Amino acid sequence: MKWGDFVLRLLVRRRDRETISGDLLEEYREHVLPTRGSWSARLWYIRQILSFVSPIAWGLAIGVGLGTLQLVNTARAPLADDDAGGMLVMAAVIVLLWTSVSVATGLPTCRFRDAVAAGMLAGLATMAVFDATSILRVNVFLDQIRYRDDWVNLVARFDASSAPNLRAYANWEYVRGTPIVLAIGAVAGGLCGALAGVINRSIGSRRKRHEVRLKPDTPY
Amino acid sequence: MAEHLGALEQAVLLALIRPRTDLGKEAYGRAVLKEVQSRLNREISAGAVYATLDRLEAKGLVTSRLGPGTSVRGGRPKRHYAIQPEGIRALNEAKAAIDRLWAGLKGPLKGTL
């Protein structure tokens, strides 16, 4: 599990690298491996490592994935219209990922606000990276995508402006839209976090029901 | 007034009050994690417990020191945690708040809502 140890060291503070990896190694060798077997023990180790990934890091990773997909699609077919079905699937995947991150982050405390905060951070981080890759896309593929159907309005606004060139104008428009993109990410992520908060509460109350057995129809 | 404590923070502080786990009296990360899991009767991720320990240390409710490692850990050191008077005060306040809420009621509750 050397690669796992390497990833773990990237995720925790320098101060805790040796101690936390030592704790996990000790638990892995002394308890998990003998009781669960090799495969299950490896899964346990991966799960423990993933538990150190913060919502922001998850959001950045989702943003990198999303941005890379956008760049690859543009490189393959710069003038192709966005497919509505594909966009819907992508949106569903993002919602699922943001909700999963929020569930995983908020579950230990089962606090609603922890899940909402995790969702907001993940959404914000995802959209920050996605916005950066969108600006990169404009600059790399400008000569091709300026002829896209969904660029007609932007090009018309450029023609009516006194901007020196389309590149500068497109960059200015994208940067001007950044706060809105970030706000959308935070709100959408927060909504996913709220959904996760409800899921976590349901899991939490189910746990409590196992611990405290109420007797129905008996007065206080 | 002491810090407001979440459920996991209380569980971690209580684990430090009662360090007599199946690993002995050593309140290092793994022992705290196992004690918390045992008390809450469910699996808690390591990341959540270490993040809570970090937060409690930043609030001044616990302190930590490094101890020697063992061969099963690949010689890596252990970080031992100890609760501070502020942590005990915060726990007492958390319990007093719960006791005030439950004053006059005897658990477990019976009946329907």
Q: Provide the residue-averaged pLDDT of chain B.
A: 85
Number of domains of chain A: 2
**Low-confidence region ranges of chain B:** none
Structural class of chain B: mainly alpha
Individual helix count of chain A: 8
CATH domain topology of chain B = Arc Repressor Mutant, subunit A
Q: Terminal Cα separation of chain A, in Å?
A: 55 Å
Main sheet attributes: strand count, strand direction, barrel closure of chain B: 2 strands, antiparallel
- SSE string of chain B: HHHEEH
Helix tally of chain B? 4
Instruction: Please state the average pLDDT score of chain A.
Output: 88
Q: Total strand count of chain B, please?
A: 2
Q: Describe the sheet with the most strands of chain A.
A: none
What series of H and E elements makes up the topology of chain A?
HHHHHHHH
Overview of the molecule:
The complex is a heterodimer of chains A (220) and B (113). By secondary structure, chain A is mainly α. Chain A has 2 domains: 2-49, no CATH class; 54-211, no CATH class. Chain A has 8 helices and no strands. Chain A has helices at 2-11, 17-36, 38-50, 55-76, 84-106, 112-145, 152-160, 166-211. By secondary structure, chain B is mainly alpha-helical. Chain B has one domain: Winged helix-like DNA-binding domain superfamily/Winged helix DNA-binding domain (Arc Repressor Mutant, subunit A, Orthogonal Bundle). Helix content of chain B is 48%, strand content 11%. Chain B has 4 helices and 2 strands. Chain B has helices at residues 7-17, 29-40, 46-58, 85-102, and strands spanning 62-67, 78-83. The longest helix of chain B is centred in the last third of the chain and has 18 residues, at 85-102. Chain B is elongated, with a radius of gyration of 16 Å. The A-B interface holds A 12-13, 16, 18-27, 29-30, 47-48, 50-53, 104, 108-111, 207, 211-220 and B 6-8, 28-30, 33, 41-42, 44-50, 52, 54, 66, 69-70, 72-74, 76-79, 105, 107-112.
